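re: ur question from yesterday

yeah so i grabbed the chain u mentioned. its 201 aa long if i counted rite. heres the sequnce exactly as i have it in my notes:
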Amino acid sequence: MRRAIRQFLDLGSGIPWAGNVHEIAQAVDPDSRVAYVDIDPVAVLESLEILEGNENATAIRADARDPRAPLDHTWVRSLLDFDQPAGVLLAVLHFVPDDDEARGAVYTLLAAVLSGSYLVISHAAQPDENVELITDVYRRQTTRQLRLGSRGEITAFFDGLELVEPGVVWSPQWLPEPEDPTHFNDNQALPMGLCGVARKP
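ran it thru and got these structure tokens back, copy pasting raw so excuse formatting
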């Protein structure tokens, strides 16, 4: 993401962990701006605690199924300049069971950003086996519905965009760094996540 993108909208940011978007982006350019969005109030509260004193990052509570909410939020609008390209990060589409609703959210987000912006999607995906077991375990441990997408379904979210190589691949395969963990090398599908990055022409 070093192609002049210095502002990011991260939807489904979750509980803060090591390697947050603002840490990575501001290590490249301290003026990089990041707006985190999550539906979980605990995730938002903990994010705000971590971001205290960081004038170039914030967190708000909103539902990604209603993308106009974060796009129109006062804090987001004051931090991000939608007259400049932005990076849109989506890691929550597997929690949207309705295909039309998920596609509509992506369409709305892409319509709000300029040419030269990037869309990043991380999506729970179908491994080769044990799909029913995995989804059943998830259903019993959380109130959220989990929808495992196929590679074709996830790739379709990038229709009309310019996919960045290596395309839509298992997460450990997306341009790994030499220091990245190697315990997934023998089975890249184990993380159950496909991801991709694409540029808006």
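noticed a couple things. Confidence is low (pLDDT under 50) at residues 129-135. also The chain is about 30% helix and 20% strand.
anyway ttyl
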